[in-house]
Write a structure and sequence with these properties.
mainly beta, 7-stranded mixed β-sheet, 11 strands, 50% strand, globular
Length: 123
């Protein structure tokens, strides 16, 4: 079972990026999915999550209104559209699959993790 996140890179402030997380090894259509991030010197923090069917989403306050999480179960892929990026969004972004059908903001609810993709926002 593997989750692979990609799409990170260097972007200027106010720019946009779209991250993707492709799952392989087994379908995750019955799992909530989430995105977390870890900035240098800081702990990993919750960014966004989505329920198994995409019907429910939840965002951290710092990204609400700027980021959008979505999923395509046919492709076993989850996305994170990030708009109006600012330097505080610089971090390694990780996708994860929850043990629950709903997404969760709790790190401990996730059993599978991707390797992370680096997003750097310049001012």
């Amino acid at each position: 079972v593997q989750l692979q996140a990609f799409g990170g890179g260097l972007v200027q402030a106010w720019g946009s990026l779209k991250l993707s997380c492709a799952a392989s090894g087994r379908p995750f259509s019955n799992n909530g999915m989430g995105w977390f991030r870890q900035a240098p010197g800081k702990e990993r923090e919750f960014v966004a999550c989505i329920s198994w069917n995409g019907g429910s989403t939840h965002y951290a306050g710092s990204v609400k209104g700027r980021f959008t999480i979505s999923r395509d179960n046919a492709k076993n892929t989850v996305y994170l559209q990030m708009n109006n990026l600012n330097p505080e969004d610089t971090a390694v972004y990780y996708c994860a699959a929850s043990r629950r059908v709903l997404g969760s903001s709790y790190y401990s609810d996730y059993s599978y993790w991707g390797q992370g993709t680096l997003v750097t926002v310049s001012s």
